[in-house]
Structure formats: structure tokens, C-alpha cells
Specification:
Distance between the termini of chain B: 31 Å
Order of helices and strands of chain A: HHEEHHHHHHHHHHHHHHHHH
Shape of chain B: globular
Structural class of chain B: mainly alpha
Distance between the termini of chain A: 43 Å
Number of domains of chain B: 1
Structural class of chain A: mainly alpha
Helix content of chain B: over 70%
Number of strands of chain B: 2
Shape of chain A: globular
Number of domains of chain A: 1
Strand order of the largest sheet of chain B: 1-2
Number of helices of chain A: 19
Number of helices of chain B: 19
Oligomer: heterodimer
Radius of gyration of chain A: 22 Å
Largest sheet of chain B: 2 strands, antiparallel
């Protein structure tokens, strides 16, 4: 029992409790102080996880096994993949905390739970990435989801916020039920919930199609699809995005999506690799539907937050291509494609956070979240207009910005003869998306501001944060090498284990054949 | 490997000059328009000087290496699917790109001079302008597919704002149509790149390595035949390949002067250049198979553009359709697959670049004062704007293909090449050239001569900067017309080395 593995989350969780307690005992504390405390807590959390970079994978065994079967029966595995998501999560929480400082100060009575839950949600994401067992994965996912339900509805006085939260809870509960049903079917067939155990049991079963397995896969896919808002399970997203406090909208579209993909990557690269032909078609269809629906519906939006919601649904479609590619390729393709996916996720997260920092700064001044409202922003606040343009161009995949390099590498890594149609569809969709991004830009650059709007200044903190994130977009876009290498090291443990299992199984089969000629 | 590194840094400097100019301008206050203009003028001159150096220093003849002035830096390698030399910042020039770099230098500097009278959001204009020019240089120099496409897209990206903000006549429509059509073309190129890199299986975006893969059969013939159309149509959109040319007249009509100059002058050449680099060099089998098709489309474009130009009343539409026609010649030249035809195509790219830039410069000079571009409104302008008429006439005659000017040299090569392989299409091309004479002379007779309309009596002739800019372009037109050896030597040297070339 190696409890040291959890030190970074002890920090995150401890700070969360401390922050909530602080306001309990000092009700008069300035609410932006809490934001800065959260920022530093996230930094400490990230710093603590740095100690795990490059260390050998360590597992936390399942209680009762006494840790004898190292690795095989692990609940949690701390390896480079987990560390990658720890750093990503800490980064997202730190940025969102800073974004929220002015926003929450002006809008909410209390803020400590808000900041505490940000940290807890981050911890939930880490264990979605680290879980090597279905129940643990499920609990981590629910930990994240419950934090998000509360955060989305945090503005109690705002009806839109409460409505969003209610819809999110109902649909989220529904999706959890599907996920659980899928898990129970898989458990019924394989008799275990550990990823390695499932992989072994499925391959021993032979090649015959079992309806329960197929239904189980599809239900799990649907459950996780809800969390990452893949179409047709995306219905909650636009409402939740629109009603949520603005920084939480950014939090939803970065952290919860990254967490969903962390879980899917670990699960589909180990537990389900042996039965890839049973789910890969479903993932391809899901990817195609998600990007088409996301991008086509985005064209008609008039509200900025809903536009971003649909555009992020489209982005999920591109990312799902990689999961399909894992299904169609061998371990090497899977590793390369997942590395490129992690790179893309980083690029996407940085772009989204930059967009939301700029939007928050804009919203703090104007309180307007319609696309029309951006009219003439290049005159009233050229810096914000520039950053919004940079991040939208990054989503569209134009050069100099993260999206170009990361999307190109991701699609290239996922390319195979079977999937070329899906890749083509993905590229076509980024072209469609350019249209509605240009419609936003058009408002900012081609029209004069509405009468009476004067040039306004931006809170210096948000200014620095936004500029830093925009610089990050350009850095990843021009020199993606370092992040890509980090992503590759993060995905190595996933498929190394997959290969081990495959070879053990293959060896086992040969033994079996040798015994029964 | 030893590279001529010193000269490689010249190429790098040429590429960085517009990007540095852009970065400096970001930090110049917007109301200091004079500073913006001086900085832009300075960097434009530097680029011109460096481009001339690259063109002159390019070695040809026996023993000269096919790609010169190379410079490469590893960008990402040995990561995931990227193997040795995965992505490199790999720059270099061959005879074709040396000529194109020279063209870019000339047109970009001429455009800078023309744009210096622009008074609305000058700083923003030049930032985007230099981003565009940087993209153009990068595409010509890049020898790594990743960066090739990076710069190709970079060149297209600023156009939306350049036309949307500073344009005229249905500018939003023109800008959106142009951007969407060009990016739709890029979609095909993206897919083609993914397929090619995957099929080659080298784990690298290095273009010479991929060219070798295309020639030694690593990319099998069926694959090449399947994906050649992706590159040709994808790049062809930018080269105004009929029937994907429809953005061109609208885009040109809406664009501001300097953007029209660079766009018609240089940017459309990126498309034809992409067909050479990605199509002919990377997928030679596919090229051989599909070239008759390109010949048909090129010829239709050449004739159609000329016929359409005959009926237009707007100066810019005439030039827009005339560009479609001239780019049709370029595509015909490429489709001949013999060295004289392709050499002619590249020369036509240069020739059309400078003369169309001059045409748009002249149109801009008139429109800025008259605020209309309808032919029927004008008449007898020779009386008030003699210099303007002289400049425009030279541009028009080059367009028509008068011997002694660049258009003749280039078109002559193309026609000879076409007659060699496809005599029928050669005949049609000559017919289109005759139509060019018709639409140009029609315009001249209406606008320059004829009865003078007193409404225009206070029009002013060209400003000194416009004369400088025009003189630079006319100089290039005349030099290429009378002394084409430097061009033919350099371009022909590289064209001979293209795969499957019949000399």
C-alpha cells in the first residue's frame, strides 16, 4: 500500500478543504483572495506531481490482494500518463481560478465552495486518467461530474444557471446509468472489473461475437460520450455552457473533455484492445456524427457561449478519430496516435482557456454574450479582439497557431487506409468551422462599434493571463516538439502494457495449443 | 552533408524579413503612420535586394546541385510516428523558386509603394500584408511538407481581413467567397498530404525524400493516380483552374490595390507552384496519367477567361478574367510535361505576376480618384493622365503578348510546348491570345482615347511613388522581354530535372 502515490491530490484536496474552511471562519474574507489561494494551491499540486515525471509506473493494489499481483490487480496506476493529466489539470484549475477572480467577486455571495470544487474536480480528472479498474474509473468520473453540476449552477440568483444545472444533472444521471449498465454487462461476461483482467478474459473467450459484450461496449461508449459531449449525446452541452458562469464554461470544455479522453484512452488501449473490431465502427460513426452535428449546428448560433459549445462538440469529433484509429491499428499506431491526441488536447486546452480569458475580460466590462455584441471590438479593445481571433483561428487550424500543428500531426498519426474517409471528413469539418469563426471575426473587425461604446481597459491580471495563453498558442503552433515529446512519453505506459498482455495471451494460447494439439 | 550554409542564411533572412517587419509593426503606435510606412518601405527594399541576390547567385549548368542555398534545422524528430528528419525547417531554392522569389520581391516592394498612400488603419494593413508576403516566401522556399503547407495556409489567411476591411465593391461577399473557396482547396491538399506521408511510410515530411519515394515506386502508381487530382484541384483553386476560378473575379474586384497586386501577382502563382512541387515532383506517375485532363481544363480556362473579359465593363473584372485566362496558359504549359512547355509556364508565372501587378496598380491609381471603375464612364483620359496611359498601355501590351515584352517570351514557350504534344490545344491557345488583344484594345479605345468626358478634368496623374512602383514593374517586363536568357537558364535547369520530363 503505497499511499505516497497520492501526495499531489492530498495537497489539492487539503487546500480545497482549507479554502472552504477559510470562508467559514472568516466570512468577510475578500473573495478574490480565495481565487489567488486556489491558484497557488494548484501550482503546489502541479509542483508536487513534477516529482513523478519519468518515474516507473507504480500501482496501488486492490484491497484484499495484498499487493501480490503487482500491476495486474491495480486500482490506480501512477505513471507518466497520470502525471501528464495531473499537470494539465493543475494548469487548467490555476488558470480558471484566476479567470474567476473578478467575475465571481461581482456576482456571487460566497465563493469558497466554488474554488474548493475546482480543485476537487481536478483531482477527479486525475483518477479518471489513473484508474485501472472500472469501478474506480466510475467513481472518479462521478466525483468530477458532481463538482461540475454544482459549479454550473453556482449563480443561484441566475435562472439560466439553475436551469442549466438541472438539465445537466438529469442528463448526467441518465448517462451514468448507461455507463453503469455497460460496466455491469462487461463484468457479467468477464467476471472482473480490472482492465487487465477484462482484456485477458475477453481474449480467452475466443473470437465469437457476444451480444452482451457489444452492448456493453456501446453503453460504456455512450456513457463516456455524454461526458465529453459527443453527438448524439451532446444535448446538455449548449444549455449547460450557456447557463454556467463564464469561467466554468471554459472549465467544462477543457477539463471535463480532457478527463473523458484520459479515461477512454486508458480503457480502450488496455481493456478493450483485443475486441477492437466490435467497437471501432461505433467510434468511427460517433466521430463522424459528432463533428458534423457540432460544426453544422454551430453555424446558426447567435450566442457566443452556445457557439463555443457546438464548436467544442466539433472538436471532440476530431479527437474521437484517434480512438477509432486505435481500434483499427496495432499498438504502435495506437501509441503514436494517442501521443498526437494528447498534443492536440494540450493545444485545444490552451486555445480554449485563452478564448475564455479574453471573453471573461470582455464580459466583465460589457455583460453581453451575444455574437452581435462583439461588434467593433477591434476598435474598443483591440487586444481582446486579437486574442479571440488567435484562439478561433487555432480552433480552425490555421498556421502559426496551435490548432494547425496539433491537428495536422493528430490527423497524420491517425491516417490509415480504412480511416481516410473519416480524416477527410475531419478536414472538411475544420473548413466548415472556419466559416462561423470568420462570422465572429467579421463582427469584431469589419464593423464599427455600436454608438456610445468607448474604448475600455482590461483588468491587468486578466491581461497578463490572456497574453500568456495567447503566447502559448503561438508557441505550440510554431514549435510543438517539446509538448509532443512529453505526450509521447505519457502514452508509452499505455501501450507497453497492452503489448505485454497481448504477448502473454499469445504465449498462453500457444501453450494451450501445445497441450491440446 | 555539407550545405552552402552562408547562402542558406540569405534564404532564411528573406523569409524572416516580412515576419520581422510584421513583429516590429505590432509595437509601433497606430497613429504613427509615417513610421509604419518607413518601416514597410525599408523591409520591402531589403526583401527585393535579397531576392535579386538569390536569383543572381543561383548556379546552373553542369555540376550545379539541383537544390541550392539549403539550410535545415531539426524541428521535431524521433517522436511518435516521426522518424529521422521528421519535421525540419528545411529551406532551399531551385531555379523555379529562385524565379518566384524574385517575382515576390519585385511585386511586394511595388505593392508597398502603392499602399503607402493608404490612410485607414495603415498599421493593421501592413501587419497583415507582411504576414501574407511571409507566407508566400515560405511556400517558395520550404522543402519540408509541414512547413510548405504551413506557409501556404499562412499566405491565404490574411486575405479575409485585407479584403473585408480595406476593399471596395461588395467586399464582404468577395472576401468570404475567396477565403472559403481557397480553404476548401486546402482541404484536398491536407487529405493528400496525410495520404502521401502515410503511404510513403518514411516518418518524415522531408520533400526531397518524398519526391524520391514518388519516383522509385514507394508510392505505387495506383496511389499516385488516385491522389494526384487532390493536389491539382486543391492547388488549382488558388491558380484559378477552371471551373474553380469563380473566386478570382469577385476577389480581385473587392480587393484593395496593393492586395490585388500581391494576390494576382504572386499568390495565384502559389497554386501553380504547388502543382509542380506536390503534383509533378511528388506523384510523377499520377501526373503523367492526369495531364491530358489538366490540359483540357487549362485550355478551357484560357479561352473562357478571354471571352469573359471581352464583355466586362469593370476594369478589375477585365483584369480578373484576364488573370484566369493567363493562369490557363500556365496550367497548359505544366500539362505539356515537356521541358519547354513547363519552362514557359514558369516564365508565364513571372511575366503574368509583374504585368498584372502593374495593371492593378494603374486601376488603383484611377479608382482612388474617380471612385468608379466602369469603362463607360471614362473616355479620353490620355489628355489628363498621360503617364498613367503610357504605363497602362505597356502593361496591356505585355498582356497581349507583344514581342519585346515579357508576355511574348513566356507565351511563346508555352505555345511551342503545347504544339509539340497537343497541336489542337496549341491552336486554341493562340486563339485565346488573339482574344486577349481584342479585350485589351477595346478597353484602350474606350478609356484612353475617344471623346473626353469633362467630369474627369481634375484627375491627377500618377504620384511619384506610383511612378517608382510602376517603373520597377515595367523594367522587369522589358528585361524579361528582351533578355530572357537569365530566366530560361535558371528555370530550364530545374525543369530538366523534373521527373518524366521530355526535353
Amino acid at each position: 500500500m503505497d499511499y505516497k502515490l497520492f501526495i499531489p491530490e492530498y495537497i489539492a484536496g487539503g487546500c480545497a478543504v482549507a479554502i472552504i474552511g477559510l470562508e467559514l471562519f472568516m466570512p468577510k474574507v475578500r473573495r478574490d483572495i480565495l481565487a489567488y489561494l486556489t491558484f497557488f494551491a494548484a501550482l503546489a499540486w502541479g509542483a508536487a506531481s513534477l516529482f513523478f515525471v519519468g518515474s516507473d509506473p507504480k500501482t496501488f493494489p486492490m484491497p484484499g490482494t495484498g499487493g501480490v499481483e503487482e500491476g495486474v490487480a491495480g486500482l490506480i496506476q501512477v505513471d507518466n500518463f497520470t502525471t501528464f493529466f495531473r499537470l494539465l489539470g493543475a494548469g487548467i484549475v490555476a488558470v480558471v481560478a484566476l479567470q474567476s477572480a473578478a467575475y465571481m467577486r461581482d456576482r456571487a455571495q460566497t465563493a469558497s465552495e466554488y474554488y474548493g470544487l475546482l480543485l476537487v474536480a481536478g483531482a477527479g480528472m486525475v483518477y479518471m486518467a489513473a484508474a485501472r479498474e472500472l469501478i474506480t474509473a466510475y467513481i472518479s468520473l462521478e466525483l468530477l461530474s458532481f463538482c461540475l453540476y454544482i459549479l454550473v449552477g453556482y449563480l443561484k440568483k441566475d435562472k439560466l444557471s439553475s436551469e442549466a444545472s438541472l438539465k445537466y444533472i438529469l442528463l448526467g444521471a441518465f448517462s451514468s446509468a448507461m455507463l453503469l449498465y455497460g460496466i455491469s454487462l462487461i463484468y457479467g461476461v468477464t467476471g472482473t472489473t480490472t482492465y487487465d483482467g477484462i482484456a485477458a478474459a475477453l481474449s480467452e473467450r475466443g473470437s465469437d461475437t457476444d451480444p452482451a459484450v457489444v452492448v456493453g461496449f456501446v453503453l460504456i461508449l455512450a456513457g463516456v460520450g455524454f461526458k465529453v459531449s459527443a453527438a448524439p449525446f451532446h444535448m446538455w452541452a449548449p444549455d449547460a455552457y450557456q447557463g454556467a458562469p463564464l469561467p466554468i464554461t471554459g472549465f467544462l470544455s477543457t477539463l471535463s473533455k480532457a478527463a473523458g479522453f484520459a479515461l477512454v484512452l486508458r480503457l480502450f488501449s488496455s481493456a478493450f484492445t483485443t475486441d477492437a473490431e466490435m467497437w471501432r465502427w461505433a467510434v468511427s460513426v460517433l466521430a463522424a456524427a459528432t463533428m458534423l452535428i457540432g460544426n453544422l449546428v454551430a453555424i446558426q448560433q447567435t450566442n457566443l457561449k452556445r457557439l463555443v459549445a457546438y464548436s467544442s462538440i466539433g472538436q471532440v469529433g476530431y479527437m474521437l478519430i484517434v480512438i477509432a484509429a486505435i481500434g483499427y491499428g496495432d499498438a504502435e499506431v495506437g501509441r503514436d496516435a494517442s501521443a498526437a491526441l494528447l498534443l492536440h488536447i494540450v493545444g485545444y486546452v490552451v486555445s480554449t482557456l485563452a478564448l475564455f480569458s479574453a471573453l471573461t475580460a470582455y464580459y466583465n466590462k460589457t455583460g453581453d454574450d451575444s455574437i452581435e455584441g462583439l461588434r467593433g471590438l477591434s476598435e474598443t479593445q483591440p487586444f481582446l479582439a486579437l486574442v479571440i481571433t488567435i484562439s478561433l483561428f487555432s480552433f480552425a487550424g490555421l498556421p502559426f497557431f496551435a490548432g494547425f500543428a496539433t491537428k495536422l500531426l493528430m490527423f497524420q498519426a491517425a491516417t490509415s487506409t480504412e480511416l481516410l474517409w473519416l480524416i477527410g471528413l475531419g478536414v472538411l469539418n475544420s473548413f466548415i468551422s472556419l466559416y462561423y469563426y470568420l462570422m465572429v471575426m467579421r463582427q469584431m473587425y469589419l464593423f464599427d462599434p455600436m454608438a456610445g461604446l468607448k474604448r475600455f481597459s482590461v483588468n491587468p491580471l486578466l491581461m497578463v493571463l490572456t497574453a500568456g495563453l495567447a503566447a502559448g498558442i503561438v508557441f505550440i503552433g510554431v514549435y510543438p516538439g517539446p509538448v509532443f515529446e512529453g505526450a509521447e512519453r505519457a502514452t508509452n505506459p499505455l501501450f507497453d502494457r497492452g503489448a505485454d498482455i497481448a504477448s502473454t495471451i499469445a504465449g498462453g494460447n500457444e501453450d494451450a495449443q501445445a497441450r491440446n494439439p | 552533408m555539407t550545405f552552402d550554409e552562408g547562402q542558406g542564411y540569405v534564404v532564411l533572412a528573406t523569409l524572416l524579413a516580412p515576419l520581422v517587419a510584421m513583429t516590429i509593426l505590432l509595437f509601433v503606435p497606430g497613429d504613427r503612420k509615417d513610421v509604419v510606412r518607413y518601416v514597410s518601405g525599408f523591409f520591402g527594399a531589403v526583401m527585393l535586394a535579397l531576392s535579386i541576390y538569390i536569383f543572381v547567385a543561383f548556379q546552373f549548368g553542369d555540376g550545379a546541385s539541383s537544390i541550392q542555398m539549403q539550410l535545415r534545422w531539426d524541428w521535431i524528430e524521433n517522436t511518435a510516428f516521426l522518424g529521422e528528419d521528421g519535421i525540419q525547417l528545411y529551406l532551399g531554392v531551385d531555379g523555379i523558386s529562385a524565379a518566384m522569389a524574385l517575382l515576390t520581391g519585385i511585386v511586394a516592394f511595388a505593392g508597398t509603394l502603392a499602399a503607402s498612400k493608404l490612410d485607414y488603419r495603415t498599421k493593421d494593413f501592413f501587419i497583415l500584408y507582411w504576414a501574407l508576403v511571409g507566407g508566400v516566401y515560405g511556400t517558395f522556399f520550404a522543402l519540408d511538407l509541414f512547413f510548405f503547407f504551413f506557409f501556404y495556409e499562412l499566405a491565404v489567411m490574411p486575405l479575409y481581413l485585407l479584403i473585408g476591411v480595406w476593399g471596395s465593391t461588395r467586399k464582404e461577399y468577395g472576401a468570404m467567397k475567396l477565403t472559403l473557396m481557397l480553404v476548401a482547396g486546402s482541404v484536398l491538399i491536407w487529405v493528400g498530404i496525410f495520404a502521401t506521408v502515410h503511404e510513403a511510410g518514411l516518418g518524415t515530411f522531408n520533400m526531397p525524400a518524398l519526391w524520391a519515394a514518388g519516383q522509385d515506386g514507394t508510392l505505387d502508381p495506383t496511389f499516385q493516380k488516385t491522389f494526384f487530382p487532390f493536389f491539382v484541384i486543391g492547388c488549382g483553386v488558388l491558380a484559378a483552374l477552371w471551373p474553380f476560378h469563380t473566386w478570382s473575379p469577385d476577389g480581385h474586384m473587392s480587393a484593395p490595390t496593393a492586395v490585388s497586386m500581391v494576390h494576382a501577382g504572386v499568390l495565384m502563382k502559389l497554386g501553380a507552384f504547388g502543382i509542380i512541387r506536390l503534383g509533378i515532383q511528388m506523384l510523377p506517375e499520377g501526373a503523367e496519367f492526369w495531364m491530358p485532363g489538366l490540359m483540357v481544363l487549362g485550355t478551357i480556362g484560357a479561352v473562357y477567361g478571354a471571352v469573359a473579359a471581352l464583355t466586362q465593363r469593370d476594369f478589375k473584372l477585365i483584369s480578373g478574367y484576364s488573370s484566369v485566362s493567363h493562369m490557363g496558359y500556365v496550367l497548359m504549359g505544366l500539362a505539356t510535361m515537356n521541358s519547354i512547355g513547363i519552362t514557359g509556364a514558369v516564365m508565364q508565372m513571372f511575366s503574368h505576376g509583374v504585368m498584372t501587378a502593374l495593371v492593378f496598380l494603374m486601376i488603383g491609381a484611377l479608382y482612388d480618384q474617380a471612385h468608379t471603375r466602369d469603362l463607360k464612364d471614362f473616355g479620353g483620359l490620355g489628355k489628363v493622365m498621360p503617364m498613367w496611359v503610357v504605363f497602362y498601355t505597356i502593361a496591356g501590351l505585355a498582356n497581349v503578348g507583344l514581342p519585346g515584352l515579357s508576355g511574348f517570351t513566356a507565351e511563346f514557350h508555352i505555345f511551342v510546348g503545347t504544339f509539340k504534344t497537343y497541336p489542337l490545344f496549341g491552336g486554341l491557345a493562340v486563339f485565346a491570345a488573339a482574344l486577349a488583344a481584342a479585350y485589351m484594345l477595346r478597353m484602350f479605345s474606350i478609356v484612353f482615347f475617344g471623346p473626353f468626358n469633362p467630369r474627369w478634368s481634375d484627375l491627377k496623374d500618377l504620384t511619384p511613388l506610383e511612378r517608382m512602383s510602376g517603373a520597377l514593374l515595367i523594367g522587369s517586363i522589358v528585361i524579361m522581354g528582351v533578355w530572357w536568357a537569365p530566366f530560361v537558364d535558371r528555370i530550364g535547369f530545374s525543369v530538366e530535372q523534373l521527373p518524366r520530363m521530355v526535353s
